[in-house]
Every structure is written in C-alpha cells, then in structure tokens.
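Predict the 3D structure for this chain.
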Amino acid sequence: MSTRESEAVRQGYRWCRTLARSHYENFPVASFFLPAPLRDPVVAIYAFARSADDIADEGDAAVDERLQQLDAMALALDAIDSGTTPDSPLYQALANTITQNNLPTALFHDLLSAFRQDVRKNRYADFGEVMDYCRRSANPVGHLLLHLTGQASERNLAMSDALCSALQLVNFLQDIEQDYRENGRIYIPLDEMQHFAISEQDIAQQHNSFQLRLLVQHQIQRTAKLLRAGSPLGKVLKGRFGLELRAIILGAARLLEKLNQQENMFSRPRLDFADRWRIMLGAIKQGFI
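Done. Predicted structure below.
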C-alpha cells in the first residue's frame, strides 16, 4: 500500500470513529474493552451499518431515492469485491477491513437487504417475520465480529444469532414510540397485538393500558430467553473481546429489567452511570467464573 493509500485509509477510519461518536448507542461501539487491533475494523463495520440505517430512517427523501442510495452502497461493495475501492472515507476504511480480515461481503449485503425492507415495510404479521428481519439486520454483525476474531465456529455462530436477535428486539421494545412517530413502523407482531387486544390506535395515542403491559411483558420474556440462549458466548470468547461482549449482554439484560419495571411502555429507558459501572464490574467478574 502506497503512502497516499495509507493516509486515505487512516482518514477513513477517523471518519468512521467520528460517526460512531456522534450517535448515542445503549451498547458500546469499539470501546476501550476491545483489543486495539479490533477497534478500527469494528468501527468501520458500525459506520457502514449506521450509514445505511440513516438512509432508511433519516431525512425527507422519497422511497425511491432511499432505495437508490442503498443500491449505491451495494454497488460499492461489489467494487470492493473486484478490487476497486470507491473514493470515500467510509469505503476506504471498509475496504481495508474487508481485505485485511477476509470478511464475506455477503454479510454486508444482508444488512442492506434489511434496510431496504425498512424502507418498504412497516408492519410484521407474526414473530417469524420479525425474526427473518433480525436474521438480516442484526445477525450479520455477530458473524462479522466472529470472523474478525477467527472464532466463527458453527456453535459460536448459533449463539451469536440468538444474542444479536435479542439485542435487535431490545431496540424495538425501547423504541416503540419513536419507531411509530418517526417512521410509522410497528415491529410488534400484529397477530400478538390482536391476541392482547391492542390496536394501532393504542400505539398512536400512547395508551398505557393493562393489556399493553401484558403484550410488552410477553415480548420481554421471549427476548430474555433469546438473550440467555446466546449469553454463553460471552464466556466462550476470551480476552477483551469476551469482556466487551459480556458488557453488552449485561447491558441488554439491564434494559429489559428497566422496561419491565417502568409504568410508561412508551418511554425509552437508558443506562445511567450507576448501571454502566455495575455492568463493567459484572463483566469482569464473569470472566473469572
């Protein structure tokens, strides 16, 4: 790699880090827990996913324009596959991450497929449809991280899928009001809303009823089971990557606790300083058990 190319890659990673810092996330992104060699690749993967997510969710662009922008990201991936790196900070960093770590670009295409679905689809008939979305919107990230660390065994990938799907469901539960208000989306399965006698109007009017609490608690319980199914991965993976993962798992569990305890089902719980301190200590302690 020439000096000019090296500088472009460094600038690309700096751009990705700036993007990561500009977005609030309940779950840490490339924190100090991670080994230093993993931080740049992780932040490049995050920046790609965040950029696509912002296309699907932010601004006033029409549906066709959003889809065209996501298609352009797919073409950029194809260019990287062919050895031609697009001249933008994001793709300079991403191309370096993909080539240096031999990452399958099909996983990035899966992410784009989910974001295209966000543009086109805003209701889910049943939990199977929700999980199919999670398979493409969340699970590829776990696969990429396991490939990065050379630990993409069949067992690890299965635990990662449970964990990543659970994290996606946590996001849905804490963003019920925001998803509906900003993008007109409802990720709670429609058949389960009908079972608990909850209408779309209840969500539109933020009607906190006993039935809504039962519906949300049902979602919480199922999500907690998925989280427990994937949580052994935090102990299987050693070192600082395992520590980071345990912190994410404990953070998700704490958010589910807060969701279960709060009176307003439309309020977005956040992790405060005390939560984060306990999570960090718990993640360290679990590494010795």
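The mean pLDDT is 91.
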